[in-house]
Amino acid sequence: MTKYVLILFTILLAACRDIPKEVSEVLRSAKNNRSELKKVITHYKRVGDMEKLQAAYYLIANLKERYYWGGEAVTEYDSLFFYVDSLHQAGINIPPQSPLIKRKWKELVDVYGTPALDYAEKNMDKTSLSSAYLIAHIDQAFKVRETLSWGKQLTFEELCHYLLPYRIGTERPELWNHNVFDEYQGFRDKKKGEHRSEVAKRLFRHLKKNTVTNQALNHYPFDLPESLMRISRQGICKQLVYYNAMVMRGNGVPVDIDFIPLWGNRNGGHYWNVLLQEDGDRSWWYDAPKKMSFGSWVRPRLTMAKVYRKTFELQPEEPASNDIPSRLKDRNRIDVTAEYTQTFDVEIPLKYPSLTAKEYAVICTFNNRTWAVQAYGTIHRGHATFKQMGARVLYLAMYYHLGKLVPASDPFILKKDGTVTYISPEGLQDMNLLRKYPRFWRIEKFEKRLIGARFQGANHADFSDAVDLFTIENAPDSIGQALISSQKAFRYFRLLFHKEKLLNVGELKFYGINGDELKGEVTGFPEMKGFPDTPYQNAFDGDIGTYVHVPQKKDSIYSWVGLDVGSPKQLTKIQFAPRSDTNFILVGDTYELRYWDKDHWVSCGKQVAGKQKLLYRLVPANGLYLLHNLTRGKEERIFTYVDGKQVWW
User: Per-residue confidence at 554, pLDDT binned at 50, 70, 90?
Assistant: First the structure.
């Protein structure tokens, strides 16, 4: 709990008769809704419940800047979630990339256009929330604390921080704490007397089992109310984590929401829940650093520049300076980076002066396309100081001027010992390049699924006479190749996966005795149902960006994808590619290498790839580089070049 919150509580505890200053300020700005807010105060004074009165003061004092999005621009998309509910009711499987949801989404966009915050109504809480709503929410928060054994352990400050907030983000107001309390009545009856960590663990397991990440909702910009999350059980990371918090808090379990706005070495961010334990310590969902589930903490190899914790209470105002982007002025978060990674205060000389006087500079990381702000720092005598920055990250100090970012320093690496290394091109070197984007754990996982898979030939359709032709022993990181020594001719060929492995493959090509690619009818086992986006045909469609994915059933001994070539033919060569991100070098595609020079990217020339690596001769050494595929794809990442290898940042 920050010192500012403690000051606020001191004010509230002393305010049994007089309305605290912070509350009075909100009342004055509540316009026509002032009377509704005063009804809340009057109600608790009349019933003589001083603790609930203090809670009401706490809520009203923090209404100042809170709001929610509403209007037709929001509600006209609600039918998507009712549609998802209808699929659940019909027992229809909904995979993360469900074509049914994509189709419904497209229908809505065709009618209403792509949803955007610009079209929604911004409703300020202080001018719109009713006294009945606030009183009901306050009473329910106290009921939860008073009736649950693990709730009784919460102090008043903890109740205000965790159970009292009536909203997680900017979702429409609902009495969600009533809803989740009633919904989980049976669950709680079985868990009487347990520690909050055990209750939280069981609730989280239930939520993880019954909710699913669905990337089809990536372009839905609004926070979801509890009622829609309950029926759809689908969402992106942030929506699922917000829903977790509602269910937990509504059942007396104090959880925070921590988040990374932007990773240090890749695009995008992440959200997860944090449990406040009885001893005041916090846990990240039960050894979450070693797990990969949604809502968990951090993934291997990903670095953090900044980590924040959402707060309901307002934090001190940020400087009003135009040198600072508005996204860095969020008053409902605190910096907790040091709880997760090594942090250092860094003082950076501003090598490239601003054309206008500046009080503040910003520190940026690369977001796969351009530089993006992470934090701001004060400028003093030509140096900018940035506080508590995550280590093992490559940064660039910049000025924010009239909505644009202007370089102020050379790129620099903040190492794990706190030292800073600047990146500036010097000298010349040759470079062998294998990728334009790093292989993260997800891609490596796909590649490893091919290990142990066997290519077989047969002349019976049931493969009762199958002959092993080649076994994949090493995970290919791009397109693999196998030369076949068998002289025997076969009509049927397949790639066979063991029952313990998911059938996951990107592309297959079989070549005959004259070097011609063999064609035929695509076959596979088991029969696929419910995954129309990843059929067996994808393995032979000539598109390395598509793939076959067959979840293994418990009663299946094996799975396979194959080709019936019509008549016996001798096989001489096989090409195979794992399910991948296609960010390795693709033969025939056009690439361009660039390096960073002072304040912009400079081209080192374009090449058409003749094989699965690129050779650039006599390019500037010791620089920061970016490789574009001009033919296809979106993902690309900055790198340095050390000892003949690409080092990603």
Answer: low
Question: Where is average pLDDT lowest: 223-232, 395-404, 411-420, 549-558?
Answer: 549-558
**Domain boundary residue among 553, 577, 601?**
577
Please state, in angstroms and rounded to a whole number, the distance separating the CA atoms of residues 240 and 367: 24
Q: Prior bond to 526 cis, omega within 30?
A: yes
pLDDT of residue 553: 60
Same domain, 635 and 621: yes
Q: What is the C-alpha to C-alpha distance for residues 212 and 3, in angstroms, rounded to an integer?
A: 38
Beta carbons of 325 and 399 less than 8 angstroms apart: no
Report residue 296's pLDDT band, with 50, 70 and 90 as the boundaries: very low
For residue 554, the Cα-to-chain-centroid distance in whole angstroms is: 30
Which structural domain range is residue 560 located in? Answer: 444-577
Q: Could you give the number of structural domains in the chain?
A: 3
pLDDT category of residue 280 using cuts at 50, 70 and 90: confident
Q: Is 564:492 a contact under the CB 8 Å cutoff?
A: yes
Which residues, in sequence order, are CB contacts of 484 under 8 Å at separation 6+? Answer: 455, 469, 470, 571, 572, 573, 574
- Six token digits for residue 361: 């500079």
> What is the chain's mean pLDDT, rounded?
92
Please provide the distance, in angstroms rounded to a whole number, between the alpha carbons at the two ends of the chain.
Answer: 34
Examine the pLDDT at 291 and tell me if it is beyond 50: no
Q: Find out whether 618 and 467 touch, Cβ atoms under 8 Å.
A: no
Neighbouring CB atoms inside 10 A of 7's CB total: 11
Q: Is residue 221 part of a domain?
A: no
Amino acid present at 197: S
Q: Say if 332 falls within a structural domain.
A: no
Residues 6 or more apart whose Cβ sits within 8 Å of residue 71:
119, 120, 121
Whose tokens are 């020339």? That residue is: 605
What is the pLDDT, as a whole number, of residue 295?
43
pLDDT of 7 over the 60 cut: no
pLDDT of residue 299: 58
Please say if the pLDDT value at position 292 is more than 60: no
| Judgement on whether residues 460 and 537 belong to the same structural domain of the protein | yes
Which CATH number characterizes residue 373's domain?
2.60.40
Q: Are residues 530 and 628 in the same domain?
A: no
| One domain, residues 491 and 560 | yes
State whether 511 and 555 are in the same domain: yes
Between CA 329 and CA 335, with CA 331 as vertex, the angle to 5 degrees is: 85
Same domain for 510 and 629, yes or no, is no
Q: Specify whether 573 is located in the same domain as 449.
A: yes
Asked if residue 383 has pLDDT above 90, the reply is yes
Based on the fold, state whether residues 386 and 457 are members of the same structural domain: no
